[in-house]
Amino acid sequence: MAKQKVRNYTSSIQQTLLKNTSELKQQNTKYLGLMLEHAYKKDYIWQNVSKIGDYYAMDFEIANNQLFNVLSKTISDAKTNGISKLIWSNESLLGKENYIINALKKISEDISINLKIIVYVSNYIKWSQSAYKQWGIKHKTYEGPIQSYCEWMGNRAPYFYTMLEPLYHEFPNSTFIRNMDAVGNVVGDFFEVCGIDVTNVTFIRYNEAPKIEELYLRNIYNSQFDTAVLPDEYDKTIGKLTQLEQTVDNVIFDMLPIKSDLRQINEITSDDQIQMNLLLKAQGQMLLDNSIPGNMKSEKIDLTKLVNGLSELIIKQSIKIKSLEKDIKNLASSNK
Is residue 194 part of a domain? Predict the structure, then answer.
């Protein structure tokens, strides 16, 4: 079974499948992963989540031949192990049918299997916004500076039907198209279409859209690199040290004095103030006016300057620290 989808729910489906390996096995089902990395054997370098680019860098014919080899061996191994249902989940396959279609055709013709291609599509506008946050900022998938939504979407507009049509044309009776916005629990819907009992399944919500504060920090972090940047590079430096829960008010304004605090200072230093003013009067100086202002003006922080300055400072330091850690690791290895 191969499946393709769009939007962040794909990660929740994949993580739920991964989390429930034992339960799936009880139902004679095996999850093969994003790049078939959980197949019984790894015959090719691209059978690794981080090597997805290697697969798409191959010639179409070579890619299909290697894919057929992996799938045919995996199906054979599955039968030997009592597995009757295999699930492959990779949302990036939609629109890249040239890399898989011939392999799927050959599998369908040469091996007696019930192929299901499950495709989730969503509102075009919502998808474009979510996709930009995910692959335009969080996971910088391109070289050069961070691109704006308009720049990034320039050649990435969601032509779902155009991308799906070749696959649907080839497998009209095996392609199941689902409206992600209307099915409710997308993960549950996927399991239902797959014919998997969810009674003992633990559902995982994964890869939620980052908050605007996190997007801002990722934007600055990823802007430090001209190359593509994986999300975990930020996670290992800034992400693990930053919770983004407290506001400026919590951190500083709650620490500053209010009228009652100042009144207390006047009370405990009143005798000292009297003596000080007597001394000032003797010196011909104006007396100190220690009265509390009727309208205390609250100081205002320029958040734009503060956030931008601190963010740049932190991220530049984090990059330096990461480089130092790498140097230390290499030094330790060379001294072994």
Answer: yes
- Residues contacting residue 123 through CB under 8 Å, at least 6 positions apart: 181
Statement: residue 6 has pLDDT above 60: no
Edge-to-edge strand ranges of the sheet holding 175-179: 29-31, 85-89, 2-5, 117-121, 175-179
- Does residue 250 sit within a domain? no
Measured CA distances, 48 to 51, 102, 151, 206, 277 (Å): 5, 22, 30, 20, 78
Q: Quick one: pLDDT at residue 254?
A: 66
- With tokens 């990722």, the residue in question is 218
CA gap 271, 99 in Å, rounded = 87
From residue 26, how far is each of 29, 83, 295 by CA, in Å?
A: 7, 9, 71
Tens of pLDDT, residues 303-324: 788 778 888 888 888 889 888 9
In sequence order, which ranges of 247-302 are alpha helices (DSSP H)? 248-251, 259-268, 270-282
* Domains of the chain: total: 1
Instruction: State the DSSP code for 42.
Output: -
**pLDDT for res 208:** 67
- C-alpha–C-alpha distance, residues 336 and 333, integer Å: 5
d(CA 179, CA 124) in angstroms, rounded, equals 11
In a domain, 87, yes or no: yes
> Alpha helices, DSSP H only, in the chain?
9-19, 21-26, 52-56, 60-80, 101-110, 124-131, 149-153, 160-170, 186-194, 212-222, 231-235, 248-251, 259-268, 270-282, 303-334
User: With 50 as the cut, is the pLDDT of residue 1 above it?
Assistant: no
Q: What is the tens place of the pLDDT at every residue in 109-122?
A: 888 888 999 988 88
pLDDT of res. 54: 93
| pTM, rounded to two decimals | 0.69
> CATH code at 63?
3.40.50
What mean pLDDT, rounded, does the chain reach? 86
In a domain, 317, yes or no: no
Domain range holding 67?
2-209
Residue type, position 276, single letter: M
Q: Given pLDDT bands bounded at 50, 70 and 90, which one contains residue 188? A: very high
